[in-house]
């Protein structure tokens, strides 16, 4: 009945959705942000610990949401760790393009390995009402890096 | 009317024939039959409604209450005929008690602004319940903030019923001027005991507004028998068009209320110094009203009345019993609310799938359900769930569709295992 949904719910997504990585609070975080999808009830808080050189030394999150939003946040925390803030912002922009269109023409230019890893979420582009589930974590990361500290909504 | 008419006196209800009146129900979605279980959000439209609205626009359209020419007179007659049909549908004493609005939401906002600011006094209270749609919650928050009205909330029991003892306790000090509660919950399906609530409210000097957005679709509503003071419902859930809602109010209350929106058609005299409002109901219908939508609503009322509200109710009662049986048997499924008196609305959560993932799966099976909080965030907090999926039935829903939903839910649980 649901076989053609395996493209969207690949095993890696189900796995990260069930057991999200870096699902913890960072008490000594340098940056934090909150994200909210008011229509769904998805909510997350994200913390970033910066290294002395400004790179993202540790990224962690807590929250509630669907498999897509939890998996996306989980994969994101793994992907951006060790990156510079500029690289993290670049990944965020590319990921949002991937989620909305399913492709990312510029992705080969830089950070190709990272985008390859995130490609597993590209299937969400075929589900317009679910794109915001995948992008919530990245919106929240941007808010945290900007250190606005205020809630973002990806509605 | 050329439509679905149940055989009289037999209690028969030919759902297959009714479905033929709804062209969208025979369409395929990604090659699958459409199983539309989101009528509680907005119902599909029978051909009779579509045709009545098209005919109005093609042959009988002009603005109403304005022109001294034949077409405008005819349009006015069609618009006022819709008002008479609504009065009959609700068993109102007079068609003048029927005010057309844009939606149920607009109707409740009208009462909140006009009755709330014009009649209620700061220090008085409005009493709602925990199971209100945001449309019957936020307008009262706004009144609380702007007008110094206290907002009280009657509790809902674990079974999903209105806690009448709590309601009565919150009426006891006599400060409540208006009780505003749902007649049927859009999440729990609970039908509230409106007559008893009316007695309690009146015994403590309060008026009663019933939000009939869900109930009016599923039950025969008689505002005189219910003994309420205001009743609101909307066209688009009753197989009619969007853009039209109804406020019924007791004449003496409507007459005591100041106008809400100002504009054309709601005045009897205007000068640069001031205005005199028109009599009820024109007083509350500023601007060009939803004319074509009124004609569509009239056709929708004719449609359900030709089938018969008792026959519709009997069909849905059967479906509800069947759904309770089938859904209760789905492993890992939790149903929200187990009220004794309930209609065809089922909110549920699966133990290993989030509501949005589940809705995406069901959609792939051709099943349309709503997911999220269904404009009832406090109620989800009350039952300690983030979000649910909701299946809601219409008069065209079949037992087979309920079976298919139950089967899909079982497979969805396996999918996420």
Automatic annotation (TrEMBL), chain A:
Stated name of the protein: SUF system NifU family Fe-S cluster assembly protein
SUPFAM superfamilies noted in UniProt: SufE/NifU
Pfam family for this entry, one: NifU_N
Gene Ontology MF annotations: iron ion binding; iron-sulfur cluster binding
Residues that span the membrane, as ranges: none
Residue ranges of domain NIF system FeS cluster assembly NifU N-terminal in the record: 9-132
Source organism (scientific name): Teichococcus coralli
Family to which this protein belongs: Belongs to the NifU family.
Record PANTHER family: IRON-SULFUR CLUSTER ASSEMBLY ENZYME NIFU HOMOLOG
Domain of life: Bacteria
CDD domains (alphabetical): IscU_like (cd06664)
GO biological process, one term: iron-sulfur cluster assembly
Cited InterPro entries: NIF_FeS_clus_asmbl_NifU_N
Automatic annotation (TrEMBL), chain B:
Family classification: Belongs to the class-V pyridoxal-phosphate-dependent aminotransferase family. Csd subfamily.
Keyword Glycoprotein: no
GO function terms (MF aspect): cysteine desulfurase activity; pyridoxal phosphate binding
Gene name of the record: sufS
Keyword Transferase applies: yes
Ranges of residues in domain Aminotransferase class V: 35-405
EC numbers for this chain: 2.8.1.7
Entries under InterPro entries matching the protein: Aminotrans_V_dom, Aminotrans_V_PyrdxlP_BS, Cys_dSase_SufS, PyrdxlP-dep_Trfase, PyrdxlP-dep_Trfase_major, PyrdxlP-dep_Trfase_small
Alphabetized UniProt keyword annotations: Pyridoxal phosphate, Transferase
Cofactor(s) needed for function: pyridoxal 5'-phosphate
SUPFAM superfamilies reported in the protein's UniProt record: PLP-dependent transferases
Catalysed transformations (reactions): (sulfur carrier)-H + L-cysteine = (sulfur carrier)-SH + L-alanine
Function, as annotated: Catalyzes the removal of elemental sulfur and selenium atoms from L-cysteine, L-cystine, L-selenocysteine, and L-selenocystine to produce L-alanine.
Name the record gives this protein: Cysteine desulfurase
Signal peptide limits: none
Pfam families named in the record: Aminotran_5
NCBIfam families to which the protein is assigned, alphabetical: sufS (TIGR01979)
One biological process term in Gene Ontology: cysteine metabolic process
């Amino acid at each position: 009945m649901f076989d053609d949904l395996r493209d969207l719910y690949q095993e890696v997504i189900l796995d990260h959705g069930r057991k999200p990585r870096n699902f913890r609070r960072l008490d000594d975080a340098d940056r934090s942000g909150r994200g909210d999808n008011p229509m769904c009830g998805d909510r997350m808080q994200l913390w970033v610990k910066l290294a002395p050189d400004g790179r993202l030394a540790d990224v962690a999150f807590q929250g509630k949401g669907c498999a897509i939003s939890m998996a996306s946040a989980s994969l994101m925390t793994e992907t951006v760790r060790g990156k510079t803030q500029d690289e993290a912002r670049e990944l965020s922009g590319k990921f949002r393009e991937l989620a909305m269109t399913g492709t990312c023409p510029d992705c080969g230019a830089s950070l190709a390995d990272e985008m390859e890893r995130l490609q597993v979420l590209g299937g969400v582009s075929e589900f317009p009402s679910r794109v915001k589930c995948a992008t919530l974590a990245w919106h929240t990361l941007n808010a945290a890096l900007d250190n606005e500290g205020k809630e973002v909504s990806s509605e | 009317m050329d439509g679905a008419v149940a055989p009289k006196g037999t209690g028969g209800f030919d759902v297959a024939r009714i479905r033929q009146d709804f062209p969208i129900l025979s369409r395929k979605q990604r090659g699958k039959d459409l199983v539309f279980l989101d009528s509680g959000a907005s119902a599909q439209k029978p051909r009779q409604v579509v045709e009545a609205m098209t005919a109005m626009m093609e042959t009988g359209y002009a603005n109403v209450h304005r022109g001294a020419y034949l077409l405008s007179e005819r349009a006015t007659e069609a618009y006022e005929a819709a008002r008479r049909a609504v009065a009959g549908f609700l068993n109102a004493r007079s068609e003048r008690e029927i005010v057309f609005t844009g939606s149920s939401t607009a109707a409740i906002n009208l009462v909140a602004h006009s009755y709330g600011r014009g009649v209620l006094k700061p220090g008085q209270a409005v009493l709602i319940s925990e199971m209100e749609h945001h449309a019957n919650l936020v307008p009262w928050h706004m009144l609380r903030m702007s007008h110094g009205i206290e907002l009280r909330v009657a509790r809902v029991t674990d079974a999903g019923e209105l806690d009448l003892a709590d309601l009565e306790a919150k009426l006891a000090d006599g400060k409540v001027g208006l009780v505003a509660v749902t007649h049927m919950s859009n999440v729990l399906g609970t039908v509230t005991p409106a007559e008893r609530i009316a007695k309690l409210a009146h015994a403590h000097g309060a008026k009663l507004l019933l939000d009939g957005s869900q109930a009016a679709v599923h039950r025969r509503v008689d505002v005189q028998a219910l003994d309420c003071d205001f009743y609101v419902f909307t066209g688009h859930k009753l197989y009619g068009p969007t853009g039209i809602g109804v406020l019924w109010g007791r004449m003496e209350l409507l007459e005591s209320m100041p106008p809400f929106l100002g504009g054309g058609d709601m005045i009897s005299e205007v000068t640069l110094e001031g205005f005199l409002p028109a009599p009820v109901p024109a007083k509350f219908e500023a601007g060009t009203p939803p004319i074509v939508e009124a004609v569509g609503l009239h056709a929708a009322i004719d449609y359900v009345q030709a089938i018969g509200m008792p026959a519709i109710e009997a069909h849905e009662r059967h479906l509800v019993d069947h759904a309770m049986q089938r859904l209760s048997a789905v492993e890992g499924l939790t149903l929200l609310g187990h009220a004794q008196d309930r209609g065809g609305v089922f909110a549920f959560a699966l133990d290993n799938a989030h509501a949005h993932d589940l809705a995406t799966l069901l959609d792939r099976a051709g099943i349309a359900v709503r997911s999220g909080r269904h404009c009832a965030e406090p109620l989800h907090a009350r039952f300690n769930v983030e979000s649910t999926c909701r299946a809601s039935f219409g008069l065209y829903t079949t037992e087979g569709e309920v079976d298919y939903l139950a089967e899909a839910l079982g497979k969805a649980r396996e999918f996420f295992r």
